[in-house]
Design a protein that fits this description.
Order of helices and strands: EEHEHEHEEHH
Oligomer: single chain
CATH class: Alpha Beta
Structural class: alpha+beta
Number of domains: 1
Helix content: 40-55%
Number of helices: 5
Number of strands: 6
Largest sheet: 6 strands, antiparallel
Length: about 130
């Protein structure tokens, strides 16, 4: 797993695109996250702009307990939710990237949000480390 700047974490896998989505979704569930939204960027760009793009999906992952704690501490944190996990094709491999939740803690002045961000970061890192 590697960091991408301060805002993302990423790993690569040799799994097929669909298998990567399936495994990431299952690993997120093991960490208490559900996928609230799934945006098929490739399909959207084809339909809206008539352009072809590599397979690329954005999964909006949410752990309700952590979201509730953060929202109770700071209502505006909702502009940063849910946690996005992205899967795309890059040559012969798939990239799986997740937002680094600690960014929330660094821009919102709340000890509770910082604590939630730390725990969510640990759980998303666990998901990425388990991906094969």
């Amino acid at each position: 797993m590697e960091a991408v700047g301060r805002y993302a974490l990423r790993v690569t896998t040799q799994r097929s695109f669909d298998d990567a989505i399936e495994q990431v979704t299952a690993l997120l569930a093991q960490q208490g996250f559900g996928v609230l939204t799934e945006i098929d960027v490739r399909k959207t760009l084809r339909e809206k702009l008539g352009v072809e793009h590599r397979p690329y999906k954005i999964l909006g992952a949410c752990n309700p307990q952590f979201a509730h704690r953060a929202l109770e501490a700071e209502a505006h944190v909702g502009v940063l939710l849910p946690c996005n996990v992205v899967v795309w094709d890059e040559g012969e491999q798939r990239v799986v990237a997740a937002m680094e939740p600690r960014v929330m803690g660094s821009i919102i002045d709340s000890d509770v949000v910082a604590q939630v961000a730390d725990e969510v970061s640990r759980r998303l890192q666990a998901v990425l480390q388990e991906l094969d």
